[in-house]
Structures are given as C-alpha cells and as structure tokens.
Amino acid sequence: MPSFMTLLVLLLSLMALPVAAQGGAAARQDAEVMNYRLSMEKLQKLVEVQRALIELNKKDPKLFEMIDQERAAKAKNGAPLTTAERAAMIDQNPEVKRVLTSKGTTAREWLLTAEAMADAWVAHEINKGELSPESGPPPVTAAQKANLALIENNQAEWQKIQAELERLTDDME
After folding, report:
1. Which residues contact 32 (CB under 8 A, 6 or more apart)?
2. Which long-range contacts (CB under 8 A, 24 or more apart) does 132-138 make?
3. DSSP reduced 3-state for 3
4. pLDDT per residue over 73-82, tens digit each?
5. Which of 67-71, 74-78, 91-95, 98-102 has the highest average model confidence (pLDDT)?
6. 0.90 cut: is pTM over it?
7. d(CA 57, CA 52)
8. Is residue 133 packed enough to be buried (19+ CB in 10 Å), middle (13-18) or exposed (0-12)?
9. Domain limits of the chain?
C-alpha cells in the first residue's frame, strides 16, 4: 500500500495542481489556502469527488493528460499559479466540472480543500515525528492551526478518510 505522501502526490496530480512547477511548499504558502478552514464534511466531500474523478479517469485517461499539458503551459509564466487560475483551468474541462458540480462543489473549493488537507497532514506528520520539520512550514494562521486540530481531534474519522483515499489510489494503479 502506498504511503500517504505518495497518495497526496497522486491526489494532487489528479487534481491538476501544478505540484511540479510550484512544489508542495509553495502551495502551502498560498494565502487563500493558509486561511481556508477544513471540516470533516469538506474532507468527506473530497473523498466523494476523488472517487468520481477516478471513475472518470478510467473511462478517459486522455482527459487528464490534456489537463497536464494545459498545466505545464500555464506554469511557464515562472510564478506559482493562483487558486483562481487553477480553478479556471479545471472549469474549462466540462467533464471534470460536471463531476464537481454533481458532488456539490466547485473547482475552487475542491482545490482549497485538498491543499489545506495536504498542509494539515504535513503538520500532523511532523508533530508525530514521521516527517522532518523541513517537510513543510509550521501552521501559522488560525485556519492552519484549526485544520491541524481537526485532524488530531478526529483521528478515527481521519483514518477512515486516509484509508479510503489510499484505496482509491490503489484502484488507479
């Protein structure tokens, strides 16, 4: 079974985030992400969306190859893409937009949830001693601290979400 870090990389790549261009740390420094508050409901919705997107990817893998090409073209501007720019790219894809809408979310909300989740996960793993402090910046905003506390205070639900995302990742392989 892949590690959760591997899972996050796969999750973020499936989401058409410019991880390679920006690096995970750059995404975690985005002000909009840093001030986004998670809830267990948002994390559950993220799992539902991932499930639907993986099904879509199974039907048409070329769809996500096209998104990767668009992402690479946008990343050439030399600066990290904003959440709004990434959301606009996702919204250009009618199939992905349909999935997001059918699950009651938007590209922006989906991106913010996934990035804030990744940020909180990194902080959680650093606190547990599973990752080195160089793996990411410590939580500094009230939202980041609340997101870390959400994961730490809801371990049973968090572990279910983590297990489901890992299962979905296994299904992709």
Report:
1. 82, 83, 112
2. 136/24, 136/25, 136/28, 137/25, 137/28, 137/29
3. coil
4. 666 666 677 7
5. 98-102
6. no
7. 9
8. exposed
9. 4-9+22-172
